[in-house]
Hints:
With 236 residues, the protein is α+β, with helices and mostly antiparallel strands. It has one domain (2-226): Nucleotide cyclase, GGDEF domain (Alpha-Beta Plaits), CATH 3.30.70.1230. The chain has seven helices and eight strands, in the order βαββααββαβααββα. The protein has helices at 24-43, 69-97, 103-106, 136-143, 159-162, 167-170, 208-226; strands at residues 2-14, 49-54, 57-62, 112-127, 130-134, 154-158, 173-180, 184-192. Helix 1 (24-43) packs antiparallel against helix 2 (69-97) and helix 1 crosses helix 7 (208-226). 34% of the residues are buried.
Amino acid sequence: MSIRPALLVIADIGGYTAFMKAHKTSLAHAQDVVARLLEAVIDAAPNLTLLEIEGDAAFFYAWPPDGQDAASARIAADQIVAMHRAFHTVRQNIVTLNTCACEGCTGARQLSVKFVAHLGEVAIQRVKRISKLAGLDVILVHRMLKNTVPLPEYMLLSEPLFRLSDEKIRTHTQSLPQEFEGLGPVQTYFVDIKDVAAELPPKPEVTRLAQMRETWGVIIRTLPYLIGLKKPRFAV
């Protein structure tokens, strides 16, 4: 086991709680939407390494360049903005083109994404070919998901990461002291993601063919789950 500094980032999709008791078809379609959104978020962050999928959240890490901890703050901000744009681009396409009337599809417009990020130290545990990160800072970044930020979409930074952030991020942050279970008082800072978000591409052109591709794509991809041939990869 080794210990080293690490940038820790979690992207968490919210808004599908209402579908936990929904019809089986709606749940399958919701699973498909969440999977596509998570995949878009993951693909948009090439400078972060995906450690694992945790329900409808993605847990990433990156090693700070030697002696350049400030680079971690730039990486976190840039990758979070890119992931936010990717999420909303895919959601925009689904909402614009999907004609399925089930709750799982129509509920896509209610989905949101939030991000928490922290710079700390982690222990690297390797069991056979699987690597895990452990330590108090891993616990902290997960505790940061249960916060009192009064926004559905935001970037929440720990104090070590905030202090290394550039002026663009710092001018948009608001201080938010937290009390986390098992950790006590922790100082955090949040940013309304809209204040730093990248512009979305234009909405897709609505044509009959585009609507059929989107809608039937969901139906075809979810059929194996509906008939029990596959189990969902991502949880709603």
